[in-house]
Amino acid sequence: MAFLFGRGRSRQPADIARATKELLLRIHETPSSKTEEDLAKQLSQMKVIVQGTQEVNTSPEQVHALVQATLQEDLLYELSHSIHLLPFEARKDTQTIFSHILRFRPTSYAADKDPPVISYIVHHRPEILVELCRGYLQSQSAMPCGVILREALKFDVVAAVILYDQSKDGEPAVRLSELKPNLPQRGDGIFWHFFDWIDKSNFEVSADAFTTFREILTRHKSLITAYLATNFELFFGRFNEILVQSESYVTKRQSIKLLGEILLDRANYNVMMAYVESGENLKLCMKLLRDDRKMVQYEGFHVFKVFVANPNKSVAVQRILINNRDRLLRFLPKFLEDRTDDDQFTDEKSFLVRQIELLPKEPIDRNRPARDGHSANTATVA
């Protein structure tokens, strides 16, 4: 057995990381089945170090040494850049290795601090995150990259880099210290590509991209509220045009549901108020109520109710509702009337009918003082 122990001692984490990087470079230049096989073996050894097996426990010292070696060799970038070229099992191993390394904390490391690899990435190598996002460009890498991204997105600094990066292909990505959250974006950074990845990719890629997109938009509330406030027109313009009006039923339904979640989140109150001031947004929403598919109608209803329930409706929104009052009062009582077991939905429909009945005859500009007591009372009721 001595030869086994001798061989084990020669395969230190630094050696494995170095060999893996060399093979990754080779697979780009001269791909071959032999290179793929050797690379799969190296990644399998890395996975054993970070995860262990039923027979072998992990060693914090070995894991720490591997983490340091991967950073020294810039291996995380090379893996994220090359994952689509790896065989299936090697991609799964890469996903496991990445996820363990991202959350690894040395024994003496403070529990309230971001893991060291997360800090390293956002301060020194954010290109790793950009490459992981670009994993959605190939179906082979979409799901493993998505799993890694969602592990990284547990930390708000990662979400911030993805949201605010505006680098182009071949340019350095934005470092955490370089973020300019108050500067409106152009709409060509890595985050904005998610709209097309969701809308134009095959089902598996689209579904995974949407899961990551939703994670970005719902997990770190204060970050997203500020981002949406600064980029309101650009974001909701694309969201409405590309996702809410997607030809894909699944994308359309999920996007309307996500829109409702964003608007009804208390953290996004100011964003919601800005959204429901728009007459165009209301027209889009009313169009959803007439969709042939019941679940699209249902999700659209949950956005429509925000417009109607808002006590401070804009003139544009009031005008649309007033002009369509009679049609809405005929339409809503029969709308999805087969949902007899959904008491909340039934109550909400009744509430909206009452609110529409109470609308004034003409829109009231709440930015102007009421001319007489009657106008003031009408405004209050509406």
From TrEMBL:
Family: Belongs to the Mo25 family.
Cellular component annotations (GO), alphabetically ordered: cytoplasm
InterPro entries: ARM-like (IPR011989), ARM-type_fold (IPR016024), Mo25 (IPR013878)
Region of interest (Disordered), ranges: 363-382
Species in which this protein is naturally found: Penicillium chermesinum
Gene Ontology MF term list: protein serine/threonine kinase activator activity
Example GO BP: intracellular signal transduction
Compositional bias per record (Basic and acidic residues), positions renumbered to this chain: 363-374
Protein's name according to its UniProt entry: Conidiophore development protein hymA
SUPFAM superfamilies, sorted: ARM repeat
Entry-linked Gene3D superfamilies: Leucine-rich Repeat Variant (1.25.10.10)
